[in-house]
Amino acid sequence: MKYLYLHGLGQKPDSWNRVIKETKVSESSVKLSLAEMLEGKSATYKELYSAFSSECDKVNDEIVLCGLSLGAVLALNYAIDHPDKVKSLVLIAAQYKMPQKLLKVQNMLFHLMPNSAFSKMGFKKADVISLCGTMAELDFSDSLHKVSCPVLLICGEKDAANKKTSKELCQYFNNACFHELAKTGHEANIEAPEELAIVLQRFYDNIR
After folding, report:
1. Minimal CA–CA distance to 131: which of 31, 8, 12?
2. What is the pTM of this model?
3. At 189, which helix (H) or strand (E)?
4. For residues 197 and 208, what is the distance between their CA atoms, to the nearest angstrom?
5. pLDDT digits (tens, 9 = 90+) for 128-140
6. Domain span holding position 81
7. How far apart are CA 166 and CA 95, in angstroms?
8. Of 119, 194, 199, 201, whose CA is between 20 and 30 Å from 188?
9. CA distances (Å), 68 to each of 11, 16, 181, in order?
């Protein structure tokens, strides 16, 4: 079994380092890079998802997907499209229907930020704006029933923008549970890596 980790838009793959180190499945874990998957391609969600799907398809084994924020959107999308391939699913700070108002505000802020602020993401400023713009119409509401694997939904106590949706998602799946990380915001893998690793390992132990 392979464990694939997907970071959020403002992060890089190494944001998972401390989490993975604390689990028992580190040797079977792979950190994917959003920037590398989009390299040489148009900065759109469609292109990113296509590249991510190709990475998953290369794995000749069942996979466990663990994604945060945009990474969670991609993981959910793949679990919907390939329920036979995904052994289990971890969605951290997830959305299944993009909050259009929030995305518009976010993109307005991106326009005001200097180019240098995007270097840590591995993306150019224009690419981040483009990518977020193409996500506005995403809505998986009518397809969530296709997910057949166990699902763990996680959200930080302080992540008000995503906590309600994470709890809602629990109601859509046949085999799902929700865990709230105390005193934690949006970037759970950076803010509470040890606690997150404990929660993940407990989930992994139950589905192996």
Report:
1. 8
2. 0.94
3. helix 188-191
4. 16
5. 888 988 998 899 9
6. 2-99+139-207
7. 7
8. 119
9. 10, 10, 14
